[in-house]
Amino acid sequence: MGDSLSLNAEKLQKVFETEKLLNEIRDTDVLLERILTEARAITNADAGSIYVIEDKQPSSVPAVAYAEEEDGFKNKLLRIKYAQNDTHKKTARAESKSPYVYFTVPITKTSIAGYCACTGNILNIPDAYHIEGDTPYKFNSSTDISTGYKTVSMLTIPLITSSGQTLGVIQIINSKNSNGDIIAFSDESVEFIKQFASSVTQTLEHTYLTSNMIKRMQRMAEFRDPKETGVHVERVSDFSLEIYDQWALNHNIPTEESMKYRDILKIAAKCHDLGKVGVSDLILKKPGPGRFNDKERAIMMGHTCVGAQLFTEPESDIDMMSRDVALHHHEWWDGSEKGYPGDIDYKSYEIGGPIDRTSRPLKGEEIPLSARIVAIADVFDALSHSRVYKEAWSIDDAFMEIQNLSGKQFDPELVLAFLEVKDRIILINSAYERMEKK
Question: Could you tell me if 341 and 323 are in contact, meaning their C-beta atoms sit under 8 angstroms apart?
């Protein structure tokens, strides 16, 4: 009895410590991923997924939409945002990450996650293949069949705000005891997760404030440049995170340090092209190869300075990294004059005019790490997708071009990290393609 009380006290303390840690995260996606990780840790669950509620037909900028009330789910769906599975991870390389997934669930009472979202009830199912009683929902075994995994115990929890809005659903799978045997989720685990879900939902609401602000800025840029903005910045942000995660792994960056950096990078990467709002439509939308003369090109380059000006004077680490990314994501690693804007007084740049091309180019690690990462993600995405002035390259050709520019335009160590996560980059790209077709 005493041991049980002590263990529960330790778990409760862990919940409180985790809540404090999560409160420091600013990006919604990074927070969702961490929520799933910590929920599994609290209950010793082998696997799990976290879903968010979205519109059935997302705009060109994917956005998490609040569910209003039960009869307001007709135009919503649950999209799986992150999936984790320790058993699968053990069969892959030790340092590899879970597969990037894309999967949607209608918000109806016929699915477990949908029922949880519709009713706001927690579902604790001891055996997914033998659900007792007359329930409207049933377990969908298709994922188990395709992956060879066996789901047994399931705990599904809605993320509901204090005002009654449902933001998503956490689903954790296969609780294990100290011997590694799969067991049902205990009543104590349910209580811990209820406490955890209540707290993290408040944190999630706060991250939406930052996320929505960035999305508004993205839409503003998209109005000016709809062909090249929108989903482009979302893909660049996701690619950047994959590159950084692998680079951090290669350099043995401490976990908490990398978590903090990737949180800010996820947001800052989305801001890399915001400065295009300061470029004339006559230049921004000019079609055809070799489309710019020298003066027009210098004016177009000014978008880096405009972007940096949007985050001046910086009031947070997000502002500082966003400024660095916007200003320096077109620099060249080798210090070539092809890179821009270089060591420039960006604050004195006059919007709509050409930048000063006499500035000393930046080189190597003079270029902020965040900007060096986004440079690779941005160019890869631009190459592999059509633009007003070019057709899309094949994925393989785009990867080859990045490799060819290693040590020239791009940091060689970051190119190595990029190539090491090639499979995930391809999966992310495919996931966005499916979203755009929905």
Answer: no
Residues 6+ apart with CB under 8 A from 301: 330, 340, 341, 354, 355, 357
pLDDT of residue 65: 43
Q: In this structure, how many other beta carbons lie within 10 angstroms of the beta carbon of residue 394?
A: 10
CA 279 to CA 222: how far, in whole Å?
A: 13
Instruction: Say if residue 59's pLDDT is above 50.
Output: no
Q: What are 123-174's pLDDT values in tens digits? A: 999 999 999 889 999 999 998 998 899 999 999 999 998 888 899 999 999 9
Q: Does the CA dihedral 84-90-92-96 come out positive or negative? A: positive
Nearest residue to 284 (alpha-carbon basis) of 345, 346, 222: 222
- Structural domains for the chain: 2-207 (3.30.450.40), 225-437 (1.10.3210.10)
Name the phi and psi angles at 156, rounded to 5: -120, 125
Task: Please provide the size of the chain in residues.
Answer: 438
Structure tokens at 222: 């998209």
Query: Long-range CB contacts (< 8 A, 24+ apart) of 53-57?
Result: 53/77, 53/78, 53/79, 53/107, 53/117, 53/166, 53/167, 53/168, 54/78, 54/79, 56/438, 57/438
Please count the CA atoms within 13 angstroms of the CA of 378 that sit on its side-chain side.
22
Angle at the Cα of 179 from the Cα atoms of 174 and 183, rounded to 5 degrees:
30
82 to 165, 392, 421: CA distances (angstroms): 21, 29, 17
* Closest to 87 in 3D by CA, of 33, 145, 148: 148
Residue 178, both tokens: 């100290």
Spatial separation of the C-alpha atoms in residues 48 and 155, rounded to whole Å: 9
C-alpha span between 359 and 20 (Å, rounded): 45
Provide the token pair at 318.
Answer: 């997000």
